[in-house]
Write a structure and sequence with these properties.
About 75% of the residues lie in helices and about 0% in strands. With about 260 residues, it is mainly α. The relative contact order is 0.14.
């Protein structure tokens, strides 16, 4: 077999391993998935009327359309926290040390985690999206091409955040530290344009919400799902995705290739 075939075979094996772990121990995935669903229901049914009134008198249906893209991005950020925990467990429980002694393609270990995490992110987004549709979210103005672009953007964001989460897991001494280190991936969507427009925020707070990866991603996803203009947010989202993917990949690779102490 060629080197490429061996790499593909080993990566596929590691992917199956990670998917089996997710199936056998679903509690972490379910806990991470429950958070965006609860947030969606909370902001629609508890805060929905107040939030929509503060946005110029829009009705609850309009606020559902506004808030769902942010919840979907929060779903991605929350799901990759489980990846950081899983990678940290592998590093601390000795399985990585055993893999290092085997004749396998070493990067396939990380590739299995990354691909498995991206698939879990997309499945989680679909489930949360189904809940959103059930409570009234509609996207009648978006074309099939915009739906496809929205799906592609979600996959790119999941890939970028997964590589960052893998790096966080590799540098964490235990699963608890990995979960804490990945917490910004859950917090940042809360201080973005996910729930209210940036223009409605205090002046001193706006740069925090504007100059971060989630805001252009949410604005782009919102425009694609609702069939509205995305402006410069599309390019900003792609730049953030590319930059975070490259940063996370080289950080993870450098940390993984370091000889164990």
């Amino acid at each position: 077999m060629s080197a490429l075939s061996l790499a593909a075979r080993d990566s596929s094996t590691m992917l199956r391993r990670n998917l089996l772990h997710a199936r056998r121990y679903p509690s972490l995935t379910l806990n991470l998935l429950l958070t965006p669903v609860v947030m969606l229901l909370l902001f629609v049914y508890v805060f929905g009327d107040v939030m929509s009134a503060g946005m110029g008198g829009a009705d609850r249906a309009a606020y559902i359309a506004y808030v769902v893209p942010g919840i979907l991005m929060m779903t991605v950020g929350g799901t990759v926290v489980g990846t950081a925990v899983s990678v940290s467990n592998d590093m601390t429980e000795g399985i990585i040390a055993r893999f290092r002694t085997m004749a396998i393609h070493r990067p396939s270990i990380l590739v299995g985690h990354v691909v498995g995490s991206v698939l879990q992110c997309l499945m989680s987004v679909l489930l949360v999206g189904a809940v959103a549709v059930a409570i009234g979210f509609r996207s009648t103005d978006a074309t099939a091409l915009e739906w496809l672009a929205a799906f592609g953007l979600t996959a790119l964001i999941a890939l970028a955040l997964t590589w960052i989460a893998v790096g966080m897991g590799l540098v964490s001494p235990n699963a608890e530290a990995a979960s804490n280190n990945a917490l910004p991936l859950v917090v940042l969507p809360l201080i973005s344009s996910a729930f209210v427009p940036i223009d409605s925020m205090p002046g001193w707070f706006r740069p925090i919400a504007e100059y971060q990866p989630f805001t252009p991603a949410i604005e782009t996803l919102r425009g694609l799902l609702l069939g509205t203009e995305i402006g410069h947010n599309g390019w900003l989202a792609l730049v953030w995705c590319a930059g975070l993917t490259v940063l996370g990949y080289f950080w993870s690779k450098a940390r993984f290739d370091r000889d164990p102490s």
